[in-house]
Amino acid sequence: MNEMSYDVVIVGAGIAGSSAAYFLRNRGFKVLLLDIKSFERVGDKPCGDAIGRHHIDELGVPPPAGSELSGLVKGIDIYSPLEDIRYRVLGDGFEINRVAYTQKFITEAVKGGVEFMERARALKLIIRDNSVVGVIIADGEGTKKVRSKVVIDATGVARVLARQCPREWPVSEELDPKDTNIAYREVRKLKEPVDEPEILRIYVSNKVAPGGYWWFFPYSLTDGFINVGLGVQGGVGNPHPKLQLYKYVLSRSTFKDSVLIEAGGAPVPTRRPLPSLVWNGIAVIGDAAYTVNPIHGGGKGSAMLSAYCVAEAVASALSEGDCSARKLWRANTCYMLRYGAKQAALDIFRIFLQHLSDDDLEYGMRKKIIKEEDLNVVSLQGDLELSVVDKAMRLLAGLGRPSLLLRLRAVSKYMDVIKKHYLKFPEDPVHWRSWKARSDQIMGEFKAKVIKS
Predict the structure, then answer these.
(1) Is the fold of 2-49+100-175+273-328 the same as that of 72-94+177-269?
(2) Domain residue spans in the chain?
(3) What is the CATH number of domain 72-94+177-269?
(4) Tens digit of each residue's pLDDT (9 = 90 or more) over 113-148
(5) What is the pLDDT of residue 435?
(6) Residue 452: pLDDT band by 50, 70, 90 thresholds?
(7) What is the largest CA-CA distance in the chain?
(8) pLDDT attached to residue 443
(9) Which CATH architecture has domain 2-49+100-175+273-328?
(10) Does pTM top 0.85 for this prediction?
(11) 304 with 55: CB under 8 angstroms?
(12) What percentage of the chain has pLDDT greater than the value 70?
């Protein structure tokens, strides 16, 4: 068997893996980025194709431009189950050509010294003395042993490498199917132009998209082109999202005589992040690390953030000649403080929403229990202030559904509790197990007292 040696091997060249390679370029390390797809198809994962500008600005990466950009976004409209109530949440973002934008990061990484290998499959981790020391891969030339000081798993929900790790390693935590959203989407060309093409539309309805939502995202720079899709909660026997999309959405007059451009589906993790992105000689990023926003399912920006945090930790560990969990741990404190804490709070909110009926959702939006400006704070920061809920309770006293308001108050409390817990993420692995036990306790209490009440 042929042998190769690198400082870092990144398996998976989607937006997470390619941005990790981008962040590690020009640092003097020997880095290999590989993907099972060809360069022409790398990054071709079906999704909503949207990313917030704040992610681009925070990471200092080049924004999409030219062929990488499909549309500009100025905000999102959220519609109630009956579609007669609309919330508008303003915020700048982009609709991207996901393949072209991913290729940009690969190209820049290669210019900075990273080696890219296409049509290569990772087969097996090499573990010695409780640490990852490489990976066995297969390409067109056969099977190769690739030794590496750090291996980064960026293989999405397949978690090709992380699932091979010993069960006691935190990176091996499996994904509960109930914490996934099974999504299907199509890109279509409509006969008529779209009104307000810079506004994305999200529709919540348990009848149409149980445990999820359906979306209508225009590509404002390509007239008449839209990304339309639907996601349902996994693991609970919900119907296939493609069937739901065709039955309830594509049957509408809006889509009459529209032309199908492309289609596809994929599972999406919608939960709090892995309890640790790193362990001895290994790191996990993007969907493989469960970094997707639990509420809206967007994952590109947070995937890039996890890649940045891991890349910084890997660079520091390599410079010190020690890639143990202790030296890589700063990836966790970076990610948990910047996104993971919010993500954990939104996981609480997501579970609560999935247990509401359409009547509850309609009532809550019609009565504006949470206003647009408060919803924006929830989305960006993961905060649902008790004062906001208490004010709603006072205003709506005597108007019905007191149990809904009381449950929302409890949700606000648990969102605050778990977010504060994540903001106190341990600075080294020594206290990791006790921190994880407390995390599980908070989630268990929430589900017992709020969801099952």
Answers:
(1) no
(2) 2-49+100-175+273-328, 72-94+177-269, 343-451
(3) 3.30.9.10
(4) 999 999 999 999 999 999 999 999 999 889 999 999
(5) 97
(6) confident
(7) 75
(8) 96
(9) 3-Layer(bba) Sandwich (3.50)
(10) yes
(11) yes
(12) 92
Q: What's the token pair of residue 438?
A: 């407390």
Q: Which two tokens stand for residue 346?
A: 């939104």
